[in-house]
Amino acid sequence: MIELNLTYFVQLVSFLLFFFLMDRVFFKPVMASIASRRKYIEGNQAMIQQRLGEIDQLQKQYQEQLEQAKDDAQAIITAQRTSAEQRRQTLLKQVGDEMTQQLSQLRTELQDEREKVRVDLLAQIEPLADHIFQKVLESPQVANASKNGVSDAELVAQAPSMASEGVN
After folding, report:
1. Distance between CA 152 and CA 168 in Å, rounded?
2. CA-CA distance, 117 to 111, in Å (whole number)?
3. Average pLDDT along the chain
4. Exposed end of the chain (fewer CB within 10 Å): N or C?
C-alpha cells in the first residue's frame, strides 16, 4: 500500500505551488502571446481578403473602362469611315459632273468645229465645181460631142470621165 507521510504532502504542496507560479509566470503570458498572435494573423488575413476584394473591384473597373474605351474607339473609327466614304462619294460625284461638263463642252466645240469645216468646204466646193465645169466645157470632147449632136443627158453621164481627163 501507499504510505502517506509528510513528504508526500510537502511534495504535493510544492507541486501545486509550482503549478500556480508557472500558471501566473509562464502559462498565462505564453497563452496571451499565442492569442494575440492568432488575433494578429486573423486580422492580417481579413485585411488581405479585403485588399483582394478591392483589387478585384479595381480590375473589374479597369476592364469596364477598357471595354468602354474600345467601344468609343470603334465608334470613332466607324464615324470616320462613314465620313470618309461620304467625302469620297461627294468627290467622285464632283469629278463625274466635271467630266460630264467637259465632255459636253468638248462635244459642243467639236460640233462647232465640224460646222465650220463644213461651211469652209461648202464655200470651197462652189468655186471648185465652177472650175471643173469650165474645164469640162473647154475640153475638146465636149466641143466634138456638141458638133455630133450628143444630148445634154449623155454629156452629163460622160462628165466624170471627161473631168478626170481634162484635169490631167
Report:
1. 23
2. 10
3. 87
4. N
